[in-house]
Structure formats: structure tokens, C-alpha cells
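Researcher: Please translate sequence to C-alpha cells.
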Amino acid sequence: MLLTAGFGCWYFVRKNQYPPWLLKATIAMTFSGWVATLAGWYVTEIGRQPFLVSGVLRTADAATQIPSGNIALSLAMYLSIYFLLLVAYISTLFVMAHRAIRLEANNLHVSDMQTDPAAVGGGMSEKQFNLEKQA
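Model: Translation complete:
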């Protein structure tokens, strides 16, 4: 993932655009974090299994001694953080989509937005944009 991102940044700085194959590679990288997490979990569990089966490690020793309340609190904290990240992600998608709609409505391009932010609404809220649009 890091190599793909690093190469993409380097390429964009040099050529000021992304090649189509790099965009496809970036899409392919979407689930690589999830795959890495699963692979780490498999390695941990498979590495622990021979010791449990052969009697070197007892099941009671492999299980945690942490009270269930602490585990529930940890789970709740993880779920809360991931929920907040999901909300932030979806909000960002909506902002980007509204900017694209404004660009299209004004027949502007991305380069116009970079040079004249007021052309696409600048930092206006959706309500301000709609009021201005009606006037």
C-alpha cells in the first residue's frame, strides 16, 4: 500500500496526472489493509495451535484473564471510533459530490476550482449556496 501511494505521489509530481494502470492498482489496494489484518490474525492463531494440541500450552493459559467488562468496554470503544470514521468518510464523500455538482452546474473544471474557489461556492454552506442560487 505504501509503495503504491508513494509511487503515485512521485508520478503525480513529475507528470501532473495519474496513469490509468496506477488508478486501477490503487483500486486493487482498497482491501489490502483488511487482507493484512486477516493474515496477521491467521498467523497468530495458527502459530498458537500446535502448542495447544501437543499439550505444551493449556487452553486456560491461552485464554485471557481480563474481566469481561473490560473486553466489552474495549469493543465498545473500537466500535465508536470506527463509527465516527465512517461518519467522517461519508460526510467527505457528500462534500466532494456537492462540489462536483457545483462544478458541473457552472460548467467549470477542477482547475477553475483551484484558482477561483468562489466559483464553486468557496466555503459556503449548502443553505447559503441554495439561497444564492435562487437569487
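Researcher: Any highlights?
Model: Residues 79 and 85 are 10 Å apart (CA to CA).
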